[in-house]
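Re: beginner question about structure tokens

> Can someone show what the tokenized structure looks like for a real chain? I only ever see the sequence side.

Sure, here's an example I had lying around. Input first:
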Amino acid sequence: MRRLLLSLTLLAACTPSKSLEPVTVVAPVPALAPVSAAPTASAVPPVQVDVAVTKAPAPVDGASLPRTHAKVECNAGERQFFACSAKEGASARRIVVCGADLGKPTASLSLVYGDATRAEDELRALIADDGTLIRYARYTRPLVTYLHLEMKRGQEVWDISDDASDEGPRPERISDLVIRAPGKSERSLRCVARSRESLMGLEDHLQKTEPWF
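And the corresponding structure tokens:
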């Protein structure tokens, strides 16, 4: 009996076993950390940029330019285009036309009148306003030359003339400043002697327009 059991044991040990089938082992996949969504535009704090805003200069007219002449004379560095002693009725007056900052964007023209001690009034405008607040005209024919400068301040018009004619039996020279304003009497300041300068010098800075006189 013991021999039989031993034989069976040895037979079992020598008997080849069946081939093993492959075993698939599934390894656990580690959980991935949640990915945060990309920040939206609203989540980005706005960047503030300080922008300096430069206001355009207000338009300038004859009424807004300050007076620059305390007396009826051109200041140092200005060019004198016209000057004369005049009469308004029986009152002594003086008239002068001055140019400041000529050749620059700030160039201006001033027409000043008053007495021997102080300027009574002044009309000043930028030369850049040529054709609107300032007009210059020259009319010429043989033996005749008419020069006129007109400046405006609102509805007020100042017209200074320097007229010469040699057509008649004797030469005529008339220079005056006429001031017209709505609702006011016309004022006329007539020169008693000719200016040493000529309004023709304005042609270096102003365009000639068709005569309106």
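Each token stands for a local structural state, so reading them left to right follows the chain. Helices lie at 2-14.
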